[in-house]
Amino acid sequence: MKVTLLAKPLTNVYVEQIAGQFDMPDLTLPFWGSRKKMPMHRIVRLEGEGNYTVFHFADGSQLMVSLTLKKMESRLSPKVFVRPHKKSIINLLYLESIHPDKQQLSVSMVNGDRVEVSRRKASRFIKQVKGFQQELMILDSKPTAPVVLVA
Question: Comparing 148 with 136, which gets the higher pLDDT?
Answer without folding.
Answer: 136
